[in-house]
Specification:
The complex is a heterodimer of chains A (about 325) and B (about 325). Chain A has about 325 residues and is mostly helical. Chain A has a domain at about 55-250. Helices cover about 75% and strands about 0% of the residues of chain A. Chain A is built from 13 helices and four strands. Chain A has helices at about 5-40, 45-70, 80-95, 100-120, 130-145, 155-165, 170-190, 190-200, 205-210, 215-240, 250-260, 275-290, 295-320, and strands spanning about 150-155, 165, 170, 240-245. In chain A, the strands form two sheets. Chain A has a two-stranded antiparallel sheet. A two-stranded antiparallel ribbon of chain A has the order 2-3. Chain A starts with a helix and ends with a helix. The relative contact order of chain A is 0.18. Chain B has about 325 residues and is mainly alpha-helical. Chain B has a single domain, classed as Orthogonal Bundle (ABC transporter involved in vitamin B12 uptake, BtuC). Chain B is built from 14 helices and four strands. Chain B has helices spanning about 1-15, 15-30, 40-65, 70-90, 95-115, 125-140, 150-155, 165-185, 185-195, 200-205, 210-235, 245-255, 265-285, 290-320; strands spanning about 145-150, 160, 165, 235. Chain B has a two-stranded antiparallel ribbon. In chain B, helix 3 (about 40-65) runs antiparallel to helix 11. Classes of the chains: A mainly alpha (about 325), B mainly alpha (about 325). The interface between A and B is large, with 45 and 47 residues.
Chain lengths: ~325, ~325
């Protein structure tokens, strides 16, 4: 092959690489630009903080979901885990348990339910979809049983600080979500654990042959997802000052949407947490913008669905032409 | 020798696992509750279950290709409200309204199929997006309010005819047609071929894209029928009806032997699977188990049944039979 041909071939290739890496950022920037032209309230500091605060709950769930999807799995039970750990914590808090202990117990419940998911998947060899679908049903049922359908309200102020307090000008939920985001990014990109997650998603057989205990890794990943869900639940009930038994219904779908819009591949092994962050922000900004523009709530879901589909078609188009 | 007998027994159980689970669920219920086996009660179960079973059959088609259709609940809702709206607000007759709404369902199925077959979007996310969008359209069309005032021509479809619920006849009709498509036609054998291995199917000259396109249209049509029957039963179309139908349909298909990996599943299995869930729910109601506890029991039965199925499969594979 001669050099000019080579160059010609690589020309569209670089555009693809550029789009693949910065496409989402570009879309986000365009959306932001459009909204700030259409509404003068959009770019105000308080509105941006508002978007971030809205994004924290789904964002935290999406962080765990990213790890799970990177291993080519899925976790449908996040909403139920969130709910069960939230209502039990709310009950314990109302009975006067110290906040610190209640938080630990909540995260423990999340980890435990995640562990059961992981064991069913890794040891029982049940497809993740089925195993976590079972956990979705059981977890929601346990939540309804525990609460007998009634919400817990009136949580102590020290606990509510998690959802309503702030450090300086930055609301507590954003601080927590940012800390978690940085921590998991470091784990994913700087540690062997993170490397293994990608490897397992990319090629589980090779990972096992390389001596990785894939079963244990998978259990860990689902535990992390469970812990993230429980943490999101804590922040949510702290903000709302009430733990409803139907809290978190449908969160699995919004988390998956954020992860996938963020460019993480459903077949595992490919994706970044930064993408998930952008995906979450994009969806949240879209909601916020539609609100500001007084678009009916009813249309919101239609637009969201279409945007998700378009994002996916976009990725597929880039991926295919770069091959 | 003892072991050989056991293996053969396990093989038999595995091949008919749906029926075995159905039996295991029904036996204690009929012992515990005197009402369970009464004709009246069984007809009630049949009425409720046959509507869901139609969507489960459609889901089985998608599962066999290795895909999934999360939009069935939303499609059911849209079909229902569209038919009700066209019939009552626009004064179209019941049947034109039903026909147009089913056409709309097929159109959504075609859109799903196109995204999956030619857009190469994973079925889970493609149908997740349409699940959201179609539910949104339903809310927009109804403005969030139910549509009532259906005439008797419409509600007839959820009543009794000759003492037997009409939806049961509809299910029978759908089952026969889908059985022929899936198990007796070339198209059906292609569906299994894709699920067994797409690359092999392609090499054998099958176009996976076209087959998938067709499969998601079938799934949407089935979901639409379920939506119409639910509407007829409630005498009104609710914008939030069918929420969670996708999970019920998947659970039913899987209990009936369909594999999420594709390549396995059957029309009869989907029906049996739906009846397992329907009978369990009915039995728990008869036993006056609080509704909050019912969900836990249903989830546990689902998990245990699936685990047993997988354990049996592996056991048999390891023994090379």
């Amino acid at each position: 092959m001669t050099a000019p041909v080579e160059q010609l071939r690589s020309a569209p290739f670089t555009l693809n690489i550029f789009l693949k890496r910065f496409g989402l950022l570009l879309v986000y920037a365009l959306l932001g630009l459009g909204l700030s032209l259409l509404s003068d309230r959009f770019l105000t500091g308080s509105n941006q903080i508002n978007i971030l605060r809205q994004a924290t709950i789904s964002g935290i769930v999406a962080i765990g979901m990213t790890l799970v999807i990177l291993t080519a799995g899925i976790d449908l039970s996040v909403g139920s885990i969130l709910a069960l750990s939230a209502v039990i914590t709310a009950d314990l808090l109302k009975q006067g348990l110290p906040v610190f202990l209640a938080v630990l117990i909540a995260l423990g419940i999340g980890a435990l339910m995640g562990m059961v998911n992981g064991l069913m998947i890794a040891r029982g060899k049940i497809p993740p979809f089925i195993a976590t679908l079972g956990m979705l049903t059981v977890g929601r049922g346990l939540t309804l049983m525990y609460t007998q359908g009634k919400p817990f309200t009136g949580l102590p102020d020290t606990f509510r600080f998690l959802g309503t307090g702030s450090i300086g000008a930055i609301p507590m939920p954003i601080v927590i979500a940012a800390a978690l985001f940085i921590l998991v990014t470091v784990i994913l990109t700087r540690t062997r654990f993170g490397e293994y997650i990608y490897l397992i998603g990319d090629n589980p057989v090779a990972a096992r042959l390389a001596g990785i205990n894939t079963n244990r890794m998978i259990v860990f990943v689902y535990m992390i997802s469970g812990i993230c869900s429980a943490l999101a639940g804590l922040i949510l009930i702290a903000r709302l000052d009430s733990a409803q038994p139907v809290i978190g219904v449908g969160y699995e779908f919004s988390a998956i949407a954020a992860v996938v819009v963020g460019g993480t591949s459903f077949s595992g092994g490919e994706g970044t947490l930064f993408g998930t962050l952008l995906g979450t922000l994009l969806i949240e900004t879209l909601s916020n913008g539609l609100n500001l523009l007084n678009v009916s709530q009813l249309w919101e879901q239609v637009i969201k669905g279409v945007v998700i589909a378009l994002a996916l078609l976009f990725y597929k188009a880039i991926n295919r032409s770069s091959k | 020798m003892n072991n050989k007998f056991l293996l053969r027994f396990l093989g038999l159980v595995r091949a008919n696992s749906g029926l075995v689970i159905l039996f295991l669920v029904a036996l204690p219920l009929s012992l515990l509750s005197a009402d369970f086996l009464s004709g009246n009660n069984l007809l009630t179960v049949a009425l409720q279950t046959s509507m869901i079973a139609i969507a489960a059959i459609g889901m089985t088609f998608a599962l066999i290709t290795g895909g999934v259709d999360l939009s069935v609940g939303s499609v059911a809702a849209l079909t229902g409200v569209l038919a009700a709206g066209l019939a009552t607000r626009n004064g179209l007759g019941t049947y034109p309204a039903i026909f147009i709404s089913l056409f709309a369902a097929a159109l959504i199925g075609a859109l799903n199929g196109a995204m999956i077959a030619w857009g190469r979007i994973p079925p889970f996310v493609a149908t997740l997006a349409s699940m959201a969008a179609v539910r949104g359209l339903t809310l927009v069309y109804t403005q969030g309010k139910p549509i009532s005032g259906l005439d008797e021509q419409f509600t007839f479809w959820a009543t009794d005819a000759a003492g037997i619920p009409v939806p049961l006849f509809v299910l029978l009709f759908v089952a026969i047609i889908t059985y022929i498509i899936l198990h007796r036609s070339v198209f059906g054998s292609y569906i299994f071929a894709i699920g067994g291995g797409e690359e092999t199917a392609r090499l054998a000259g099958i176009s996976p894209a076209k087959i998938k396109f067709g499969v998601y249209i079938i799934s949407a049509l089935a979901a639409g029928l379920t939506g119409l029957l639910l509407t007829a039963r409630l005498w009104s179309a609710q914008p939030n009806s069918g929420t969670g139908l996708e999970l019920d349909a998947i659970a039913s298909s899987v209990l009936g032997g369909a594999s999420l990996m594709g390549g396995a599943g059957s029309v009869t299995g989907a029906i049996i699977g739906t009846f397992i869930i329907g009978i369990l729910a009915n039995g728990l109601n008869l036993l006056e188990v609080p509704s909050y506890n019912q969900q836990v029991i249903k989830g546990l039965v689902f998990i245990v049944a699936v685990i047993l199925d997988y354990v049996l499969k592996r056991r048999l594979k390891n023994n090379g039979s």
